[in-house]
Amino acid sequence: MVPASAAPTADFSNDTWWIWLIKAFGILAFLLTSVLIAIWAERRILGRMQTRPGPNVHGPFGLLQSMGDALKLLLKEDITIKGADKFLYLLAPAIAAFSAFLVMAVIPFGPEVSIFGVVTPLQLTDFPVAVLYILAVTAFGVYGIVLGGWSSNSPYPLLGSVRASAQVISYELAMGLSLVSVFLVSGSLSTSQIVDAQTQLWWGIALIPAFLIYLVSMVGEVNRLPFDLPEAEGELVAGHMVEYSSMKFAWFFLAEYINMFNVSAIATTLFFGGWRAPWPLSAINDGMLNTGWWPLLWFVAKVWFFMFLMFWLRATLLRFRYDQFMNLGWKLLIPAALGWLVLVMLVQGVRQFTETDLTTMLLWIGGGFGVVMVVLLLWPAKKEETAEPSGSPAGGPDVLRSSTDFDAFAGGYPVPPLPGQNLPPSPRQRRRQQDAAATAGASSTTVQEDQDV
């Protein structure tokens, strides 16, 4: 494997201002077109998985349905609620959408190509800390959600925005830690150098624990099922967006789908070899399919592979409870990412004194680490219960009561039970138990009197 320090970097020395404009408009057109296709594709895929047709009326295969939805949002009456903080209320969706568009600026779509006679990389820009720039921009995007919920001056949007901030903090930590191992083995934070470091083997295979942690974290980062707690319709009535309408709502909606493409592009670049063709296509004619405009096709195909995974998850899994959501992030993903990072650091330290192949060591360690994590994930939780006799309200036989019983209204408001906790019987259920115990006692007394006679 070629060391990352010797890997070539993207050369932008031939770029001019009109080349920058062409690339920028190309990225903008790619994202907007992809969002329209993704909305249609998600509805069609979900329909097929749920044995229904999905959109199939407007245009061939229903392809014009997304265009109709976009025009509907554009032409709807724009309503601004009276009690909102007007400036922040309008600024919030702009922040969410603007930050979503910035990520693709450092993503390499392909190698050097000729655009109107100018040889330039299929990438808008790159710099030594490009991945840190991506993390900073994605973290800035949550300000749009938080300000949107707070400026609406309404309780449910505020709850949704608070959940969103907690969610980003929780899952961005795991995401960042999973990416550090990629930096260690690639020797760079530049996206073009990370792609060049995966010439022989993709990091998604050599660093499979970090790849799996990133997959879970990226779904939580973009608020998709089963992690869409900030938009939980059953609890928060669509969360932070409930007080928005028309194009202001559309900006939030657009930002969510663009962020889905962003995290998919990051996964492609850092773990799936970027724009490089998969094996055995990469071996055809000495890598001919890794030159010219062909790599753009492989990049887009890989991005849509991750998009399909998120559609699949939405059709398969139910929404988590908030405590399950936080337990997964803080008690499993972050410790696992830290443990894997320590192992990768040890491997890199050993390689300083030996000539052991990096790929072989990472594959063996990653396989063992993955088995341990799967066992811990599937290990059943231990429920501790103690049998304590307590007299029934009607004076009937003793019943076994769990030590995990608790008062749901102890804090003045109802609290749902956690796993292993049991709610006390409701007043109506307690009366039913008393009546049943009284009836059983009367029946036993009658039977005893009949026997005596």
Offer a quick outline of the entry.
The protein has 453 residues and is mainly alpha-helical. 59% of the residues lie in helices and 4% in strands.
How is this structure best described in words?
With 453 residues, the chain is mainly alpha-helical. It contains 14 helices and 4 strands. It has helices at 17-49, 65-75, 86-102, 130-151, 155-186, 191-196, 203-206, 208-221, 233-236, 246-271, 294-316, 322-351, 358-378, 427-452, and strands at residues 110-115, 118-122, 388-390, 399-401. β3 (388-390) and β4 form a beta hairpin. It starts with 16 loop residues before the first helix and ends with a helix.
Shape annotation: globular
State the separation between the terminal residues, measured CA to CA.
97 Å
Q: Radius of gyration, Cα only, in angstroms?
A: 28 Å
List low-confidence stretches.
Answer: 1-8, 384-403
The tally of helices reads 14
User: Which strands sit side by side, in order, in the main sheet?
Assistant: 1-2
Report the sheet-strand fraction. Answer: under 5%
Number of domains: 2
| Alpha-beta classification | mainly alpha
Q: What does the secondary structure layout of this molecule look like, with pairings?
A:
Layout: H1 17-49, H2 65-75, H3 86-102, E1 110-115, E2 118-122, H4 130-151, H5 155-186, H6 191-196, H7 203-206, H8 208-221, H9 233-236, H10 246-271, H11 294-316, H12 322-351, H13 358-378, E3 388-390, E4 399-401, H14 427-452
Helix pairs in contact: 1-2, 1-10, 1-11, 2-10, 3-4, 3-10, 4-5, 5-8, 5-12, 8-10, 8-12, 10-11, 12-13
